Amino acid sequence: MSQWIFVYSFPLSKDLGALARFIQRHQLPLRITEEKNQQLLLCPDASLAEMLKPLLQRWDSGELDLDQVQMQRAEERESGSEGGQTSAAETDSQLGNTGDNPGKKHSDAVSVLPSFPLDRTPLSLLLIALCFFGWFLQVNNLSSGLLIYPDPNAADSFSQSSLAWHLERGQWWRIFTPAVVHFSLPHALFNALGIWILGRPIEARGGSILFVVLVLLGAAASNLAQYFWQPGIRFGGMSGVVYALVGFALVLQRFQPLWRDIPAGILTVALVWLLLCALGVVTLLTGVGIANAAHIGGLLSGLIIALVYSALGGPRRFASA
């Protein structure tokens, strides 16, 4: 594992949003941490660290805008020139030119979504697999043991409801497992994509314990909300968990502006989709019933968990670029 080298320090009051965007835009191997009431920038490459120091000093003093600075990777020099290949990245015009230069090749395109090693997101990968496993169980009529039985009369008396019947027999898992069952392959694909985009960044940054809490509470909140709202229908799917992740990300990005693994546009699309579903537009156009209460219950649970997590100082873990 690389040894992280100190590059530069900033006071806690310094807004490092521009620096975080600069790091992500150029995919630089840098990390922002908080230690001893300071924000520290770390790097595993000594040559890159030395190259960045003048740039950071000028930005810290207000001489330049990092959002306007362009960087390019080292490239082979023209044949016949000495030195062969530069050893470190360079900025346009010795870190000072903030304009575009069409004569130079810019750095490789940056992916909108960050990539994480698979071993940092094992639970997200498990959830993705469960989406398709739940669809397989449903197709083969093997999912009844995971669902809450529909009960049109549950509103009259909870003690006589199907959910109470399940719980009296120790079948507590049914509070969570409807999230596994998917009634169509597109439904499984859609939720698997949501877990890939939203779940992996949260698990990679926040850790598996936080992710387990989010998934379990999100599943329970969404399933119970849907059951009590429409007890007479059968429901399933991981959409409620996905919306718990949406709610968590919405709040966390407010408390930790440096965290931008999940683009704000994706969260906006998710909220617009929830609204279209709740208004009945999606059902009208597709003829497919939507578990709207599950979406809303999951979203609210994610918002609440994020608020508690932020109050406990958790967003610090999401500051690393």
From TrEMBL:
InterPro entries: NRho (IPR031976), NRho_sf (IPR038244), Peptidase_S54_rhomboid_dom (IPR022764), Rhomboid-like_sf (IPR035952), Rhomboid_protease_S54 (IPR050925). The chain crosses the membrane at residues 125-149, 175-197, 209-229, 235-252, 264-287, 293-312. It is found in: Membrane. GO terms for biological process: proteolysis. The keyword Hydrolase applies. Keywords: Hydrolase, Membrane, Protease, Transmembrane, Transmembrane helix. Residues 3-66 form the Rhomboid protease N-terminal domain. Its EC number is 3.4.21.105. It holds the Pfam family Rhomboid. It is a multi-pass membrane protein. Residues 169-310 form the Peptidase S54 rhomboid domain. GO terms for molecular function: peptidase activity. Residues 71-106 are annotated as: Disordered. Gene3D superfamilies: 3.30.70.2080, Rhomboid-like (1.20.1540.10). Residues 85-100 have a biased composition (Polar residues). PANTHER family: PRESENILIN-ASSOCIATED RHOMBOID-LIKE PROTEIN, MITOCHONDRIAL, RHOMBOID PROTEASE. Belongs to the peptidase S54 family. This is Rhomboid family intramembrane serine protease. It comes from Microbulbifer variabilis.
